[in-house]
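Interim report to the steering committee. The following record documents the input for Methyltransferase family protein (351 residues).
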Amino acid sequence: MAVDQDKVMELLHRFVGDLGATVSAGGIVTGHRLGLFRALAEGPATPEELAGRTSTDARYITEWLRSQAAGGYVTHDAATESYSLTEEQAFALADPDGPLYLPGAFVLALGTLRAEPRITEAFRTGAGMGWHEQHADVFDGCDMFFRPGYLANLVPAWIPALDGVEAKLTGGGRVADVGCGHGASTTLLAGAFPRTRVSGSDYHSASIDRARKRTAEAGLSDRTSFEVATAATFGGSGYDLVTTFDSLHDMGDPLAAARHIREAVADDGTWLIVEPIAGDTVAENLNPVGRVYYSFSSYLCVPNAKSQGGTHTLGAQAGEAAIREIATEAGFGRFRRAAETPFNAVYEARP
């Protein structure tokens, strides 16, 4: 067999980058948990100074800073042997409540990989693994990963992109936030539209507990309610807006969920479907974003769908055509892509 050495070296370069990224993910999560990025955003620091700011060990901090600088997440000054964050690095790494917080994605990734032995066995047996069986970091990381995008886009861009929805919610509407998780989207909608009532539902009871706590802390309990229910069993009808944020593709029977949503939405209502950005073919998704979503999907989305019977197992890269087919078969007569971001496609379905 003739091996092209140039192609071998190309593969090795990719391997080194991937291995470094895999191992350094732990360091980013450590930085998140210990507040290292936030402390470094206060100003340049030597390892000893950063250790003093964060009550940590200087020798560990030295190695951590070197690792982060090698990965491009921290900036190194060779003249002073100090480290700092650029404005862009601080924007992306140091504000958990901002419009972009990259460490949350790594919390999600490491939490996801904790299930590797069980998922590997599932590859052999075809068994499923429900979201509720995943490590707690999956729920926390998922919230941290998606919330910044919702914060930046949901109220400012996505709601205005829907036909007539903003006016309904401003005047006082009814919203069902299906698969609400920890309630990030529920809280944003309730906070932005004081006259609207928002009902959140999720089949995971621990997530509903967190969602209730979040809205209570935000002073929004008077306009929100929650229930433990699946997307095919949540209560109520006549909703002006039903939302599913990055959840439809996880469901074992998304068609049953879509049919229930059709029954629950008012005849002049809207179903807002936010899904991972994807093309309709595999070839269209062979890119860095597709790689991220296919990898998470193998460990989270497909196993969860299979644990629920898996009639569709859409996966995180289903694409617009598959989502449109689900909505149409469920009885929605109008369907369009209303908006998109680098990570999400936003669809509007109406009766």
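The chain has a mean pLDDT of 96. The committee is asked to note this result when reviewing the revised timeline.
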